[in-house]
Amino acid sequence: MKAILISLLFAALPISSSYANGSISDAKKIKMALARIPVTDKDLGYKDLNARLPKVGMSVEFVKITKVAKGEDEPPYIFAGDEIIDIFLSEPNQTVKAICPISGGQASYVIRGKKIIPQTRTAHWLMTNKCDYKG
């Protein structure tokens, strides 16, 4: 009986961790992830990336969320406990590229407590509407 319980426990471990470190393609879960990334330029009138992405003609293919564990951190950039949200996007149109030379593809953010840190030029532009990403 104990062997059955232990085997069930080990079988459930990958399922429980897949939420914390997994790819999301479900539309509702993508919306929830995008809602966590605010648009800080209030002149645009967008609350979060859910509203901004369609207006710039970009769509989300999937999202990957990773929780950084102890030993996986890379100070001073990534710390244990950080959450990384990678958003895989369609290519931006030429009008967007003329405003800011972003490539689309991927926008990455580190969430550290209440602080959200863009990790790519695309992520920075989508969040701040500024094309001055310094990396």
Give the helix/strand layout:
Elements: H1 2-20, E1 22-24, H2 27-34, H3 49-55, E2 60-67, E3 83-89, H4 94-99, E4 105-112, E5 115-118, H5 121-128
Antiparallel strand pairs: 1-2, 2-3, 3-4, 4-5
Task: Jot down its keywords.
5 helices, 5-stranded antiparallel β-sheet
Brief synopsis:
With 135 residues, the chain is an alpha+beta fold. Helix content is 36%, strand content 22%.
Mind explaining what this structure looks like?
The protein has 135 residues and is of the alpha+beta class. The chain is 36% helix and 22% strand. The chain has 5 helices and 5 strands. The protein has helices at residues 2-20, 27-34, 49-55, 94-99, 121-128, and strands spanning 22-24, 60-67, 83-89, 105-112, 115-118. The protein has a 5-stranded antiparallel β-sheet. The termini are far apart. The relative contact order is 0.15. The model is unreliable at 1-19 (pLDDT under 50).
Which H/E pattern describes the elements? HEHHEEHEEH
Mean pLDDT across every amino acid position: 84
SS elements, strand count: 5
Overall form? globular
Which strand order spans the largest sheet, edge to edge or round the barrel?
1-2-3-4-5
Q: Residue share in helices? A: 25-40%
Class derived from helix and strand content = alpha+beta
Largest sheet: 5 strands, antiparallel
Strand content: 15-25%
Structure annotation, total helices: 5
**Uncertain ranges:** 1-19
